[in-house]
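Note to self: keep these together.
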Amino acid sequence: MAGMEPDNLPEETPETPSGKTGWWPRKRSATLRSERVLGLMVEAFAGFAMLDGHLDAEEADLILDLLRNAFPEADHSWLGRRVQRAVRDAKPLASTALDLRELLDDSQKLAVGLQLYTLVDAVGRSERSRSSFEVFLRRLGRPDHAWVILGEMSGEDNPPTTPGFERLTFGRTPGDDVTLPDEADGYSFRVYRAADLVLVRNTGDKPLWVRGRSLESGAFLRMRARQQLVVPGWTLTCEDLVFFLNVKLTGNRPAIFLAATEDGLTSERSRSRQSSVRIRFGLEAEVEALRPTELAVDGRGLLVS
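Structure:
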C-alpha cells in the first residue's frame, strides 16, 4: 500500500455498532486518531503474515480472526476490505511502526507488542519473524518491550521487569501467583495486562474453555468484560482476572467481616463489635478469627483467635 501521509485518514473509516474504535479513549478528539491507529494495525498484522511474500486463504482467515478479537468494535466487513487493501498495496513494516510511534503511549505500545506476538506465534515462530518483531518494536521506540515479550514467551525463568508489563500465573505449582483447585491438575495459564488489553495464554497441558471455545495449550485469547474462563472446579470472569491483577499491582486486599447473629452469619464491609471473623481477599484468601468462635474452615479445623 502507498504510505498514508501523517495528516490523512484511511480511505474508509471503520464502522462500529456504537461509534467506538479500538482500545483508546472514545472522546471525539481521539476518535479520528483511533481510526488511523486501527488502519495501521491492520497493515502491521498483514505485514507480519506476509513475511514470506505471500498470503494464502488460511493465513488471511487467521489475520481476520485475530483482528476481530483485538478490535471487536470494528465492523467485520470493513476489516475484511482493509486487510485486502493492505495485502494488495503492501507497506514496509518499519514504515508502519514509525507511523504508529507518535500515536501511542508506552502502555499502548506494549499492548500492540503483545497482540502482534500472538500473530507471530500463530503463523510460526521463525527466526525471520522474531527478528522482524524486534525491529518493529525498536522502530516503535520500545525495543525493551520486544525483549521482555520474547523472553516471557520463550519460558525464561526471570520475571519481566519492563514497567507496565503485568503478569499473573495460575496453576498448581508452589511458585504460581494463584493456586487452582485440586480438580484442575494439569491446567495452568498466564494472564497479561497492558493498557486495557487482558490477554490469556494457556501454559498447561490441557485446553481451557473461554466463552464456549477451547483454548489449546500454547494458544492466546483476549478476554473481555463478562467473559468466562473455565477450569475444573473454578469459573473465572474477566472481572475476576482484573481483580487479581489489581491486587498484585497495588497490594490492596479487600476484606469482609462475619458476625454470628440470631439469624445466622451476616457479612459486613467494616468491623463491628459483633465481628468474629475477617476474610481478606487477595491472590489467596486469608481467614482470621477476631474472637473465640465455633466456626471452622473445611479441612483446616476450628478457627483460633
